[in-house]
Amino acid sequence: MKKILVIGAGNVGAHIISHGIAKNLGADFYLMDLNEELTKAQLLDLKDTLLFSGNSRVHGIKFGDPIIHEMDIIVITAGANQAPGETRCDLLAKNAKILNSIADGLKPLKEDAIIMLVTNPVDIITKMAQDIFPVDNKQILGTGTLLDSARLRWRVAEHLNINVNSSHGYVLGEHGDSEFVAWSTVKFPHLFSEEIRPQIEESVRREAYDIIEGKGSTYFGVAAATVKLLNAIMHDTREIFPVSTSYPHFADSDLQRTPLGVPAVISQHGVEHIPPLQLDSEEKKKLTASAKKLTDLYTEYKEN
User: Fold this and answer.
1) Side by side, which strands form the sheet with 73-76?
2) Looking at residue 166, what DSSP letter applies?
3) Which are the contacts of 166, defined by CB distance < 8 A and separation ≥ 6?
4) Do residues 133 and 115 touch, judged by C-beta distance below 8 A?
């Protein structure tokens, strides 16, 4: 059984394990958090679900445990929560410190360990992880715009009155305010008028803020997206998902090194391959602008 370490016992981390158990992922889950009382409570609650699923197992773990070296996949959800009215980029300074602390506590890592970032702002946190962790960049990925694309696809499905699994389309770029719907990737784009397109795009972009205003944080969707990626890695499915990874097809070398949400083939090795996108001219400009925003923000952070 693959060993999966989830760092962060809050709503997101706990729901990732809960969803993984319900989906019969068949993994040894390890949960870690500095809040030991919360971790103990979450573990008890999660173990209560084991009878009703497959063969997953759940354990608690602390920094310094020798078994950390055996972890196949490390999922990092720990970080400051996004407050109402706060953008993901506002979280950068706080969560960068947390990431550095986590990296120090995880040494030594398994050589072929996959590191998955869920903490926001996920694109820049993924870039930081690539700088910090001593593994190949293809082994480090963020959840990117997979959740945003899921938000798009159920709206597309409702508009077309079809099953959500038959809808197609990607949200690309930053998992944040500069993301955009690549309408050229949407199924039957001609059925979406110039009036409805911006309405859908804005509702996708605003959804996280609406959820946070209503209940404090998002966790159902991102947990499901994370488990989908875990399944692809564990079973080497080589499915294509829009994750936070560097896009090598930019002309600008700086932008090539900036993770953002682009479709990538996900395998047991992490990011197996990143095919070039077939976008229209306007979409290419939006993707470049989103990458430049993230690059500039990361440069400003490093300089300060």
Assistant:
1) 57-60, 27-32, 2-7, 73-76, 114-117, 140-142, 239-246, 259-267, 270-273
2) G
3) 157, 187
4) yes
Output the average pLDDT for the chain.
94
Q: Is the same domain home to 127 and 163?
A: no
Is the same domain home to 38 and 61?
yes
pLDDT tens profile 161-210 = 999 999 999 999 999 999 999 999 998 999 999 999 999 999 999 999 99
| Residues 118 and 161 occupy one common structural domain | no
- Residues with a catalytic annotation lie at 175
pLDDT score for 300 = 82
* Same domain? 283 vs 150: yes
Q: In the structure, how many helices (H) and strands (E) does the chain have?
A: 9, 11
CA distance 127 to 293: 14
As for how many domains the chain has, the answer is 2
* Residue-wise pLDDT tens digits, 209-229: 999 999 988 999 999 999 999
The model scores a pTM over 0.85: yes
Question: Residue 136: which domain range?
Answer: 2-142
Statement to judge: residues 138 and 150 lie in one domain? no
Q: What CATH number has the domain bearing residue 117?
A: 3.40.50.720
